[in-house]
Amino acid sequence: MTPADPKPTYHPASAPDFVPAPLLRRLQLDRLQAIVARAYERVALFRQRLQASKLTPADIRSLEDMARLPFTTKADLRDTYPFGLFASPLKDVVRVHASSGTTGKPIVVAYTKDDVAVWTSVMVRSFAACGLHEGDIIQNAYGYGLFTGGLGAHYGAEGIGATVIPISGGNTDRQIMLLKDFGVTAICCTPTYFLHLIDRAQQLGVDLKSLPLRAGVFGAEPWTQSMRKHIESVTNIAAFDIYGLSEIIGPGVAIECPQHDGLHIFEDHFYPEIIDLDTGAVLPDGQEGELVLTTLSKWAMPMIRYRTRDITALLPGQCPCGRTLRRMRRIGRRSDDMLILRGVNVYPSQIETALLEVEGTLPHYQLILTREHGLDQLEVQVEVTPQVFSDRVGALEALAAKLGDRIERVVGLRIKVTLVEPQTIQRSEGKAKRVIDKRAQQP
Ligand SMILES: [Zn+2]
Fold first, then answer.
1. Which of 36, 41, 74, 98 could link 146 by a cystine bridge, Cβ 3.0 to 4.6 Å?
2. Which of 308, 323, 277 is closest to 99 using CA atoms?
3. For residue 376, which of 162, 163, 196, 151 has the smallest C-alpha distance?
């Protein structure tokens, strides 16, 4: 914002974004103490870990004391599947969501009625930060279902008083028709899906610049500054990065403001720390490490010091927009090998499991990531036994289809499977390079 700009007006829902820092810290500590006490009382795993560290909730007297608490990891969610980390009885849980894990069993998360209200409020504040308000028409192209994206954005869009079009993902031609016919002013989806939509609109002769569409709220996968430039230049919309994860609440953990310089974390509900990947020590602002989040108000399933595997840094200094909420740099990479394809988490280990369950394959495979028409594509190349290869052509096709089905059942996405002859895939003497990322070579 330059001095010549008129004083910006803020949506009333954004008021908590501007709470003076000392007040915010006080609120955080009160909430932290309450949530630690609740988790200690009701979640066996957390209580055992605290006892092993010779700690009780009374030892948490300041926000700095948080660093003494044990971490929670994705493995903890897997190991306690499905309800082991719930702090509320099922009768108080009004919603569960789930996302894919490495073993085929999903990660399950829970919400009380109040948790859903908090989630709605942070999504309302997210949309408000993007300049949306009552009267906007929001097309929600995030997937509806167990994935948190669809319903999270839906409740927030309704909460801010917008008209919601719950179209969910896919069916691109219909998406474009509704964008045009309904006078949509904002869209929510993954950034790669929006790139696909741009391509398709061009093929159909629809000029997105001529539509009322003025904002895109893009998340559920990392995306770059250059992708933002591309999107904004071909569509004339403002593209906002939104961050969230099911384990914490879903979308609405952090959002960009119109400065587009980092994402404001809704710190009154989610406490961020950046830790050293190897030592686990808390790092100062500005230093890069793994993002660790603590839910300060989530009642059904408190997450204490959850290791997100996302690599970022907390940005020093205050944002010119005036929000007191701290900002994190956009997420560029993850500390593990997880691939995010069209918003869905895909692990090489899941694919390996699926491949090796089917007879006729060899344990030599590779995942090739490419980008076609702006959409990330994954191809699985797997070697098959000499018998399968010498068989009639139909046998190869049948095996490829069978592998495709098996992978789809595990990861929830149709992935192209190519069968190759034995000894085709390069062997490694050290760690196998399973993922070949060719996306950087393509537009
Ligand atoms: Zn800001």
1. 98
2. 308
3. 196
Confidence of residue 286 (pLDDT cuts 50, 70, 90): very high
311 Cα: distance to centroid of ligand 1 (angstroms): 20
Q: What's the gap in Å between 34 CA and the centre of ligand 1?
A: 29
Are 311 and 333 in contact, with CB atoms under 8 Å apart? yes
Structure confidence by residue, pLDDT tens digits, 42-63: 999 999 999 999 999 999 999 9
| pLDDT band at residue 192 under the 50/70/90 scheme | confident
State the average pLDDT over residues 270-288: 95
DSSP structure string for 204-240: TT--GGGSS--EEEE-SS---HHHHHHHHHHH-PEEE
For the beta carbon of residue 341, count every other beta carbon within 10 angstroms: 20
The pTM for the full model equals 0.79
CA of 399 to the centre of ligand 1 (A): 53
Q: Where are the alpha helices (DSSP H) in 53-206?
A: 74-79, 113-129, 148-159, 172-181, 191-203
